[in-house]
């Protein structure tokens, strides 16, 4: 019937108007709903412009997601320890940090401290006294043992460090660096 059709059309139109009013309403932080078509259009149009700017211009045109920048950084590492090689084509050799670390070319360096150990050579010498290095006889010193916190590889001999203290002998750069009395 034509009357039923008109009623259904009015209900649909009212629903459509209700939907349009809901879409174009402007809300504030207090959740104040202003049922004003003009204010709602301005609000949604502003949102649409922001979305179009971000998606259309920043992402698509400028490819902002692919933007790169140059790296400015510095990495400084301090290497401690030693290495020991004994190959058929080379004599036994102790490698310390100065031997196996290639220094970077620096433009500016402030030296804050210096430990001078004159005339060091690779040889055998008694280890610096420490609870783990003090010995009474050769049985206390295991040959080939190396402690990364110590100065070299043990030879298996117990030697006089001083008149009162004996320590295990090591193959290392001798005389050993004594860094307990650092200059100020």
Strand arrangement within the widest β-sheet reads 5-7-6
Reading the helices and strands in chain order gives: HEEHEEHEEE
What is the residue-averaged pLDDT? 78
Largest sheet: 3 strands, antiparallel
Report on the structure:
The chain crosses the membrane at residues 41-60. The protein has 184 residues and is an alpha+beta fold. It has two domains: 2-66; 82-174, no CATH class. Helices cover 28% and strands 19% of the residues. The chain has helices at residues 2-23, 37-61, 97-100; strands at 26-27, 33-34, 82-85, 93-96, 121-126, 153-160, 166-174. The strands form three sheets. Strands 5-7-6 form a three-stranded antiparallel beta sheet, with no helix packed on it. Strands 1-2 form a two-stranded antiparallel ribbon. The chain is rod-shaped, with a radius of gyration of 40 Å. The protein starts with a helix and ends in a 10-residue tail after the last strand. The model has no long low-confidence stretch (mean pLDDT 78).
Chart the SSEs and their pairings.
Elements: H1 2-23, E1 26-27, E2 33-34, H2 37-61, E3 82-85, E4 93-96, H3 97-100, E5 121-126, E6 153-160, E7 166-174
């Amino acid at each position: 019937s034509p009357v039923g059709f008109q009623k259904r059309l009015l209900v649909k139109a009212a629903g459509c108007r209700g939907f349009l009013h809901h879409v174009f309403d402007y809300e504030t932080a207090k959740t104040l709903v202003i049922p004003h078509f003009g204010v709602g259009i301005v609000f949604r149009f502003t949102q649409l412009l922001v979305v179009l700017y971000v998606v259309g211009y920043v992402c698509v045109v400028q490819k902002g997601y692919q933007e790169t920048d140059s790296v400015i950084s510095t990495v400084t590492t301090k290497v401690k320890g030693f290495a020991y090689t004994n190959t058929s084509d080379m004599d036994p050799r102790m490698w310390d940090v100065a031997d196996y670390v290639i220094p970077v070319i620096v433009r500016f360096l402030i030296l804050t401290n210096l430990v001078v150990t004159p005339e060091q050579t690779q040889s055998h010498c008694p280890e610096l006294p420490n609870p783990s290095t003090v010995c009474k006889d050769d049985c206390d010193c295991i040959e080939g043992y190396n402690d990364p916190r110590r100065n070299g590889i043990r030879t298996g001999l117990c030697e006089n460090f001083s008149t009162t203290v004996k320590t295990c002998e090591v193959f290392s750069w001798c005389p050993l660096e004594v860094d307990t009395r650092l200059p100020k």
